[in-house]
Amino acid sequence: MASSKKVRELQKRREEIQLGGGEKAIQKQVAMGKMTARERIIELLDNGSFNEYDLFVEHDARDFGMEQKKLHGDGVVTGTGTVGGKPVCIFAQDFTVAGGSLGSMHARKITKIMDHSLKMRMPLIGINDSGGARIQEGVNSLAGYGEIFFRNTLASGVIPQISVILGPCAGGAVYSPALTDFVFVVDNISKMFITGPEVIKTVLGEDISMEELGGARVHSEMTGNAHFFAESEAECFEQIKMLLSYIPWSNSAERVQKEVVEPRKEFNINRIVPADKRMPYDVRDVIRSVSDDSAFLEVQENWAANIVIGFGRINGKTVGYVANQPKVLAGVLDVDSSDKSARFIRYCDAFNIPIVTLVDLPGYLPGVDQEHAGVIRHGAKVLYAYSEATVPKITVILRKAYGGGYIAMNSRHLRADFVFAWPDAEVAVMGPEGAANIIFRKEIATAEDPDKVRKEKVDEYIEKFANPYVAAAKGFIDSVIEPKETRNVLKHALEVSGNKEIGMPKKKHGIPPF
Ligand code: HXC
């Protein structure tokens, strides 16, 4: 049995270190509306489940007066715990200790817990709140970041990696979150940028605040770097718990079976999509009308909203949804929506989550801006991601499926396992008006009454092509279904896809249009 003197010494050491940068620094942290590193971990993990490691690690810097400085825990708290009863690895940078700056031992604590999470196949949660590379440690800090980036890449697609930005995340430090699967930001607290306002002022002479440059709204609405936006740290932790309830613990873990709750009555699938093809609607209502308990966890809700991605459950098990959003830009594919959906498809594929695709789009967005922004390269990512995905892939064409959009949105030709269409679906090269104007241009131009002829030709085109039956006659669509049959059809398609196994050509890896 340990002597009581030694136990007291341990307790004293613990207490001292757990005070981080001390009362004053903690007060400053609180005044900024931020929790401390340990409070954050405790709030996020199950009650009493946190076990801390490397509490007694000390920095090894010897320049710029560092030898006299004691940095408790070297500015980062690491350990294991549980969320919803299941194990996770976690680290949280402690801004109260030298601004959470990353020196070599700080980095080593992080890489140690990263190695543990990969070895034990459990999710890694990283809470970032740091001034970046510890300036006094020079290249040792840079080496530390390099070691973290390498491990982020190695673990990608094996275990879920979650980054939470709860303070500054500056310079090269931003690249660890960027390499992880999901980035969470909080209004007024998160700041992410490569070069800060001071550098921008010096080099470009432009004045910009940290918030305008890389605040939470910037990254959830403009850049797409963030996947979840919260108003407060507490809300952010609830979002993380919710995400973890949907995703598998590793790429070899079984999908969890939850209790099946039928969709709520208020989401009546017969009433969501308007008969008039030009009328918008919210495709999230369709998702909710087929999902268990009408629950849907949307990812990147505020960015590239012309496509909707996220998680739901059908028959108690998680599925990933990819759906065109007719109420934003008519649901077109463009540069950002292509990036957004392609990455999500690859996430689902890596973690064995079946993908349900809901289609209603007029195609890729035309325009000089899009062409010059690289819509060819970005748009190709969607084709690549669907084509290489080997998880069960199910498509429902709700209304329009025109042109390249039809092919890209998980068509049979990219190896969808099941393609269903509603009776109002139109599978065609383009919309009837555009098609008639092109193929009957001469007849319309030379007619006595061009408007009358145009209408006749549009009607002729609608009659012939603007329906799901031409594609169904070729077997490109497996079944034309009534909207109210959708949930049952999806349930069945998922049930019979459980043992899916397909081969791919042997290769080291493909070369996606990154
Ligand atoms: C060492 C640092 C530090 C750093 C902050 N501190 N950043 N120490 N290295 N990078 C220390 C401060 O000296 C201070 O110590 C304490 O942390 C709190 O910092 P404050 O400046 O008082 O806090 P605040 O006013 O809130 O400002 C926060 C900040 C600012 C905006 C993050 O500290 C800042 O601009 N820091 C430098 C950011 C930066 O340029 N980092 C390098 C990026 S380059 P005391 O002892 O006074 O309490 C990079 C390269 C990585 O990261 C490349 C990887 C590939």
Structural overview:
This protein has about 525 residues and is an alpha/beta fold. It has 3 domains: about 10-245, 2-enoyl-CoA Hydratase, Chain A, domain 1, CATH 3.90.226; about 270-430 and about 465-495, 2-enoyl-CoA Hydratase, Chain A, domain 1, CATH 3.90.226.10; about 430-465, no CATH class. Helices cover about 40% and strands about 20% of the residues. The chain is built from 20 helices and 16 strands. The protein has helices at about 5-20, 25-30, 35-45, 105-120, 140-155, 175-180, 195-205, 210-215, 215-225, 235-245, 285-290, 335-350, 370, 375-390, 405-410, 430-440, 440-445, 450-465, 470-475, 485-495; strands spanning about 50-55, 75-85, 85-95, 125-130, 160-170, 180-185, 190-195, 230, 295-300, 305-315, 315-325, 355-360, 395-400, 420, 425-430, 480. Strands 1, 2, 3, 4, 5, 6, 7 and 8 form an 8-stranded mixed sheet that branches. Helix 4 (about 105-120) packs parallel to helix 5 (about 140-155), helix 12 (about 335-350) runs parallel beside helix 14 and helix 16 (about 430-440) crosses helix 18. It is elongated, with a radius of gyration of 26 Å. The mean pLDDT is about 95. The structure holds hexanoyl-coenzyme A. The site of hexanoyl-coenzyme A has 16 residues, from helix 5 and strand 5.
